[in-house]
């Protein structure tokens, strides 16, 4: 039996290994929590892309794993000048070190031509497009010409084959070949100098034949380089000690626990890599390696520096990152004067222990990143040149500056930074993300300083002398508290100036005149109202190319000053106060390539933009633009965003621009496009326009609504995707997601298409939020298939739901994320994070990664691939990288305004607080998402961005707050497709009655606000009891029962109006049959007074807790019909107060589309008054005769009919046992009832 992980190498199982146990352990490692689910998942055939078993070694494995590139291309053999050899379509494979070309069209069925590439050549053929010539070495060399279909393939083949051709003839690469022993043909040539055996299954196995085991490696007497990393050695292979010529040995990641003393005989060894093992000590015999210059000990179990290093005088770098050192004893370093570079990152060092006052003069580079240091006195390293101490807990830092060249101290808590003497050689300094309140004086005196990053501190002022430094090229001072910059600047050499996110009211008046080297200026997110001039005359020396001024208070007066920068390429002036952009000024920006004027009050883009022939991006969303600009005339245009404007038509040329890839016209409600225009625009790769509304737009808003946007990165690759399902799982839930593939497009697209279906399936298996979210992500891991083996992506999902069977259930928002996609909820105007990023700064994740002996590179990535330890895909990094998400659930309350889902690019540029504050006052969700994206781009984001904003309108009738002594309440509603405008409830309903959801629910949306009297008649099937006399309520009796009820679950009043909904759904949207009110016959049981028709509509009642605050129900005079129906329209009732403010959330106090208003009163058990007549013709609106419609009924699918009957019967029997029957004279004729959790999956209604 063989097992294969992630489509990679296969290994043979040992006799004691059990396949099922291996598979179960693997699935448990992924994150599944229960054995039954692990076994269920293990039976799915798709799991083969993660783990697969074979009976016998698969034949294709040996060759396919060596295949690096393959494809069908046009091939020609021989010399290009000969006309005989014509181009033919053939299969071409780069396998190992050979080029394989099929001889027939049917790929691998015929003879294969093999061209050895080692020592050969690969050359570009300029005569043909995307063509390469491959030649072998030697006198009998052959040449193949191959034409590739795309430039991308051309580059990929050129790069890969060039590596192969540059290899030595005496080298063999057998990496990733599933080798368990050395192949026999390897020993045919014993003159090998380089042998690569990494990532196989080689191990010390006494049962193997002597000619096949690792002991035979000593036969290669000329071997100089041997790579045995990522095998299953377990013990050090002693045979390598017998290779006298060996100069480089790599045995990393082999679970070694000791190094034998025999290694001391390898006198010629220069590089010895032991990283990623379980070593705690080294043998003293290692001192005999006199030529050893590099010793890799990273990611082992050392607690101190091995003493043997004192004798290895040729080693100049101490590589011990990722070990278990808690203290750094400087005495040990003092005994190693040959060590110049000390790398101790990712340990747990809390302090440095000095032994003497004398300096450690030999250490020039010290790396203490990602430790636990609280303070660091590095004065003892008097010759230090480069110091890394990022991501510690440093409050103070002292450094000797004699030879200091680079200082990296970001992400600490520094309040004091002292360097003495002045560092005259310092060229790079990064002290961002600390707590510094001023720039140290010595910084201004560092004459060779080129890059200074002091962003994300608390600095209030920049010294004027800083700008006088003739060497300073890049100054990053964003995210501070700067109120102003130095007033009168002398000539400065700064080329990049970033002062975003400060409190600047103005820029220095001579800044742009003196900074004649300035190419980049970002002053976004300040309070600027004006700009300084670039020149005082017509001539200008400005070379400014990028100008970012987003999120300020700039007005039209600033626009003429832009003409002083004729070389401007990128201009961002979004979210200012611009009302116009003069055409004459736009015409002068001839080198402009990208412009963003979003979030202003522009009514037009000047037509002179046609003069800017290099423009490729025009972003002007969230303005008041009425006329489509002349951007389609630009030859280089690629992206146009005119969403959220007031466009009514689009003017297009006969042919679209050849490079146009994206056009966004969403959020233009007045826009009308004819068929011809739509047909033309649909040829654009990414064309966005509002879909026509299919339902009634009138009425109160739903509980949630959303808007989303996406933006490509610098290389125009859209590596993000968004998911939005407003009516997930039959209108009762919602699902939103954002997916980020970093640099790949495939994974985000797969996640977008698949995750909603997986979640819907998981909801059928469990209702526990954490369980179904975790399982959704893990199942998605296998759904990625082969794409997820080498690629990966971050994801965040947000699911809104309520429990239909929970009497007190309110809406629950559940967020789950992996990678750097995150969610934040705005509650009471403050951000509430719902996500977590699992990276190396997470202590528990770092501990887990170290246990699996993964190598973390200096950029903080696992094996150099991803910085996230929990992410979808990248299965080849298992078990170091897993897909188990962080899950968090919150109950939604009326204080929750909205939540934001964003990709990595968004959250790298905006803090949670800023994102919430930026969109809190933006009423439209689409405009809010657009704003976030624009801000991120102006703040410096170059990655792809995706943002989803979901606005919430959670009112008291959206959740339950009842104080119940028993169950029986109705579950909360979910938003419907057609927002209704009348609440209908049941007073004094029997215990087995069907509760009707509130107006915001999907079920209540089936009940139209335009109820005709015909539909309220007895023919429809509604029943009502006789209305009691007004005196039935005693003056001394309380207006409410004893327990508190919410608006969803009204209390049953024993002496109030009683009505039951029939099995028919109410709909009057199509009830107008053209009859006039004078032509119809009177309807029995309904009284009208000509123009006045009154309908009693019951609003859910809510009970006050304190009896002293109780009020009597508001009595409204009305006539009672035989059916108990009271009808009112077109007239205001005297004595019924109305509020003028309709801005309240929910239905109370809001004017509805049919003119009715629910007054804001303490007692909500009242009549809703129609203040304006609905917009219908008088005839037949209220009084159309009954028109029985066969579609007006609940539809029960045939397969559920028997089950529903049994449920109804069982439910009625239970209710009869719990409650005695009412008196016969009051017993209404009960229609059929359904429990809310047994509602049919669809309704057949005219709506």
TrEMBL record:
InterPro entries for the chain: Leu-rich_rpt, Leu-rich_rpt_typical-subtyp, LRR_dom_sf, LRR_domain-containing, PH-like_dom_sf, PH_domain, PPM-type-like_dom_sf, PPM-type_phosphatase-like_dom
Catalytic activity: O-phospho-L-seryl-[protein] + H2O = L-seryl-[protein] + phosphate; O-phospho-L-threonyl-[protein] + H2O = L-threonyl-[protein] + phosphate
Segments of this protein annotated with the region Disordered: 988-1040, 1203-1247
One Gene Ontology molecular-function label: metal ion binding
Protein's cellular compartments: Cytoplasm; Membrane; Nucleus
Membrane topology category: Peripheral membrane protein
Gene3D superfamilies found in the cross-reference section: Pleckstrin-homology domain (PH domain)/Phosphotyrosine-binding domain (PTB) (2.30.29.30), PPM-type phosphatase domain (3.60.40.10), Ribonuclease Inhibitor (3.80.10.10)
Cofactor(s) required for function per UniProt: Mn(2+)
Keywords, ordered alphabetically: Acetylation, Apoptosis, Cytoplasm, Hydrolase, Leucine-rich repeat, Manganese, Membrane, Metal-binding, Nucleus, Phosphoprotein, Protein phosphatase, Repeat
Domain PH: 66-166
Enzyme Commission number, as recorded: 3.1.3.16
Cited Pfam families: LRR_6 (PF13516), LRR_8 (PF13855), PH (PF00169), PP2C (PF00481), RA_3 (PF23010)
Gene Ontology biological process terms, A to Z: apoptotic process
SMART domains xrefs: LRR_BAC, LRR_TYP, PP2Cc
SUPFAM superfamilies on file: L domain-like (SSF52058), PH domain-like (SSF50729), PP2C-like (SSF81606)
Regions of compositional bias (Low complexity) in chain numbering: 998-1019
Name used for this protein in its record: protein-serine/threonine phosphatase
Species of provenance: Macaca fascicularis (Crab-eating macaque)
């Amino acid at each position: 039996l063989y097992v294969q992980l992630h489509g990679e190498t296969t290994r043979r199982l040992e006799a004691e290994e059990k396949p099922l146990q291996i598979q179960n352990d693997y699935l448990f490692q992924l994150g599944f929590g229960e054995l039954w689910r692990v076994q269920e998942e293990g039976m799915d055939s798709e799991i083969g892309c993660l783990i697969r078993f074979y009976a016998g070694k698969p034949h294709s494995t040996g060759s396919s794993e060596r295949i690096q590139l393959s494809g069908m291309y046009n091939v020609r053999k021989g010399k290009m000048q000969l006309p005989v050899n014509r181009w033919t379509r053939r299969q071409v494979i780069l396998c190992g070190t050979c080029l394989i070309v099929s001889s027939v069209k049917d790929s691998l069925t015929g003879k294969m031509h093999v061209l050895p590439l080692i020592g050969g050549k690969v050359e570009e053929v300029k005569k043909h497009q995307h063509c390469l010539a491959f030649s072998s070495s030697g006198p009998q060399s052959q040449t193949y010409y191959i034409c590739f279909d795309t430039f991308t393939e051309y580059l990929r083949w050129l790069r890969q084959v060039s590596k192969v051709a540059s290899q030595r003839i005496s080298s063999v690469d057998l990496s990733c070949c599933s080798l368990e022993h050395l192949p026999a043909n390897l020993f045919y040539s014993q003159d090998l100098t380089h042998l690569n055996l990494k990532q196989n299954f080689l191990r010390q196995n006494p049962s193997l034949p002597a000619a096949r085991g690792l002991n035979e490696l000593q036969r290669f007497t000329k071997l100089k380089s041997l790579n045995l990393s990522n095998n299953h050695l377990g013990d050090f292979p002693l045979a390598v000690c017998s290779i006298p010529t060996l100069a480089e040995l790599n045995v990393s990641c082999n679970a070694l626990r000791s190094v034998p003393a025999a290694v001391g005989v390898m006198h010629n060894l220069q590089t010895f890599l032991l990283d990623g093992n379980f070593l705690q000590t080294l043998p003293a015999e290692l001192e005999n390696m006199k030529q050893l210059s590099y010793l890799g000990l990273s990611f082992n179990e050392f607690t101190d520096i091995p003493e043997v290093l004192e004798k290895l005088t040729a080693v100049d770098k101490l590589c011990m990152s990722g070990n278990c050192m808690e203290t750094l004893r400087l005495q040990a370093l003092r005994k190693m004067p040959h060590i110049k570079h000390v790398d101790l990152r990712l340990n747990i060092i809390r302090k440095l222990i000095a032994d003497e006052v004398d300096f450690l003069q030999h250490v020039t580079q010290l790396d203490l990143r990602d430790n636990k240091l609280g303070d660091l006195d590095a004065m003892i390293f008097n010759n230090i040149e480069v110091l890394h101490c990022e991501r510690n807990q440093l409050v103070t830092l002292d450094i000797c500056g004699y030879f200091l060249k680079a200082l990296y101290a970001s992400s600490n808590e520094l309040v004091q930074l002292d360097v003495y003497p002045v560092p005259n050689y310092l060229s790079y300094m990064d002290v961002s993300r600390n707590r510094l309140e001023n720039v140290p004086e010595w910084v201004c005196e560092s004459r060779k300083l080129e890059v200074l990053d002091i962003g994300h501190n608390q600095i209030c002022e920049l010294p004027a002398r800083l700008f006088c430094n003739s060497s300073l090229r890049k100054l990053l001072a964003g995210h501070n508290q700067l109120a102003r910059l130095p007033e009168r600047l002398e000539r400065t050499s700064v080329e990049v100036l970033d002062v975003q996110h400060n409190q600047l009211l103005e820029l220095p008046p001579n800044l742009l005149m003196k900074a004649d080297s300035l190419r980049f200026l970002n002053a976004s997110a300040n309070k600027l109202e004006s700009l300084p001039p670039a020149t005082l005359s017509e001539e200008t020396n400005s070379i400014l190319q990028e100008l970012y001024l987003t999120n300020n208070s700039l007005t039209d007066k600033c626009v003429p000053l832009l003409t002083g920068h004729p070389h401007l390429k990128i201009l961002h002036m979004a979210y200012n106060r611009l009302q116009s952009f003069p055409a004459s000024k736009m015409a002068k920006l001839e080198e402009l390539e990208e412009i963003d004027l979003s979030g202003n009050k522009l009514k037009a883009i000047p037509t002179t933009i046609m003069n800017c022939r290099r423009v490729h991006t025009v972003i002007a969303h969230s303005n008041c633009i009425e006329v489509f600009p002349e951007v389609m005339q630009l030859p280089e245009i690629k992206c146009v965003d005119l969403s959220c404007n007031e466009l009514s038509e689009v003017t297009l040329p006969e042919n679209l621009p050849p490079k146009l890839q994206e056009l966004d016209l969403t959020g233009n409600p007045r826009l009308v496009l004819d068929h011809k225009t739509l047909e033309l625009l649909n040829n654009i790769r990414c064309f966005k326009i509002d879909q026509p509304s299919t339902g009634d737009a009138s009425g109160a808003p739903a509980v949630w609504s959303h808007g989303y946007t996406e933006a490509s990165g610098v290389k125009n690759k859209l590596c993000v995707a968004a998911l939005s399902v407003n009516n997930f799982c039959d209108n009762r839930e919602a699902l939103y997601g954002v997916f980020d593939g970093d640099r790949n497009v495939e994974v985000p697209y797969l996640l977008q298409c698949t995750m909603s279906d997986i979640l819907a399936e998981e909801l059928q298996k469990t209702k526990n939020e954490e369980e179904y979210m975790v399982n959704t992500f893990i199942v998605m891991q296998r759904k990625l298939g082969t794409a997820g083996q080498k690629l990966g992506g971050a994801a965040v999902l947000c699911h809104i739901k309520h429990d239909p069977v929970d009497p007190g259930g309110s809406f629950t928002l559940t967020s789950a994320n992996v990678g750097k996609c995150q969610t934040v909820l705005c509650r009471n105007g403050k951000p509430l994070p719902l996500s977590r990023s699992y990276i190396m700064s997470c202590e528990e994740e770092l501990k887990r990664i170290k246990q699996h002996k993964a190598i973390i590179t200096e950029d903080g990535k696992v094996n150099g691939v991803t910085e996230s330890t929990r992410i979808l895909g990248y299965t080849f990094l298992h078990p170091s990288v897993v897909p188990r998400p962080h899950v968090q659930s919150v109950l939604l309350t009326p204080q929750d305004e909205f939540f934001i889902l964003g990709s990595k690019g968004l959250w790298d540029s905006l803090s949670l607080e800023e994102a919430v504050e930026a969109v809190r006052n933006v009423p439209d969700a689409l405009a809010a998402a657009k704003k976030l994206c624009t801000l991120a781009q102006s703040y410096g984001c170059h990655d792809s961005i995706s943002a989803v904003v979901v606005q919430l309108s959670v009112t008291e009738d959206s959740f339950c707050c009842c104080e119940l002594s028993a169950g029986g309440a109705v579950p909360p509603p979910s938003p419907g497709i057609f927002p209704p405008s009348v609440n209908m409830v049941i007073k004094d309903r029997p215990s087995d009655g069907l509760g009707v959801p509130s107006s915001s629910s999907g079920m209540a949306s089936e009940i139209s606000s335009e109820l005709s009297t015909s539909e309220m008649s007895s023919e429809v099937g509604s029943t009502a009891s006789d209305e009691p006399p007004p005196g039935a309520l005693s003056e001394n009796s309380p207006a409410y029962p004893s327990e508190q009820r919410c608006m969803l679950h009204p209390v049953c009043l024993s002496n109030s109006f009683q009505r039951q909904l029939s099995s028919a759904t109410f709909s009057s949207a199509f009830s107008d049959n053209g009859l006039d009110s004078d032509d119809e016959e009177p309807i029995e049981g309904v009284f009208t007074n000509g123009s006045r028709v009154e309908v009693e509509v019951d609003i859910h009642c809510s009970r006050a807790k304190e009896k002293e605050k109780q009020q009597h129900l508001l009595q409204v005079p009305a006539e009672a019909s035989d059916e108990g129906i009271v009808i009112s329209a077109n007239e205001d009732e005297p004595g019924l107060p109305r509020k003028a403010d309709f801005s309240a959330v929910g239905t109370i106090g809001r004017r509805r589309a049919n003119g009715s208003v629910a007054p804001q009163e303490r007692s909500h058990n009242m009549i809703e008054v129609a203040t304006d007549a609905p917009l219908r013709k008088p005839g037949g609106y209220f009084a159309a005769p009954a028109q029985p419609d066969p579609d007006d009924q609940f539809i029960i699918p045939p397969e559920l009919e028997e089950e529903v009957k049994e449920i109804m019967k069982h439910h009625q029997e239970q209710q009869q046992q719990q409650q005695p029957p009412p008196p016969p004279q009051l017993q209404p004729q009960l229609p059929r009832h359904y429990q809310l959790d047994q509602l049919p999956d669809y309704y057949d209604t005219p709506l």
